[in-house]
Design brief:
The protein has helices spanning 2-11, 25-33, 40-47, 51-63, 82-90, 102-106, and strands at 67-72, 75-80. It is mostly helical. The chain has one domain (2-106): Orthogonal Bundle (Arc Repressor Mutant, subunit A). It has a two-stranded antiparallel sheet with strand order 1-2. Strand 1 and strand 2 form a beta hairpin. The longest helix is centred in the middle third of the chain and has 13 residues, at 51-63. The chain is globular.
Length: 107
């Protein structure tokens, strides 16, 4: 029961700052903001994630209004939500760097 309450609390969190520290979240925000992706399936291919894992991440992002998804025919499109637009607008640089990616830049 505590785990469920923790997850519900995380979904209702008004501050997405901690969410940006989670794997793939800032990368997804950057791709959506720069219009580098057109659909959820394209995003899955770029990130190399399984559908279930991507859906879980996107659900969390959508619950915190970083993104929103809409159907365009059979395609699930992703756009910045109000909080995501605010974050991108406040800081035109990339959002907080994805954990674990620093080693790639050191090379």
């Amino acid at each position: 029961m505590d785990l469920l309450e923790d997850r519900l609390t995380a979904l209702e969190s008004p501050v997405p700052g901690q969410l940006l520290q989670k794997a793939h979240v800032s990368e997804i925000l950057n791709l959506v903001a720069k219009r580098k992706i057109d659909s959820q399936s394209e995003l899955r291919s770029i990130l190399g994630l399984r559908s279930a894992n991507l859906t879980r991440i996107l659900n969390l992002m959508e619950a915190n209004e970083l993104i929103f998804r809409k159907m365009d025919g059979r395609k699930k499109c992703i756009e910045l939500g109000p909080v995501g637009q605010k974050l991108i607008g406040e800081d035109n640089r990339q959002p907080v760097e994805q954990r674990g990616m620093a080693y790639l830049k050191a090379a």
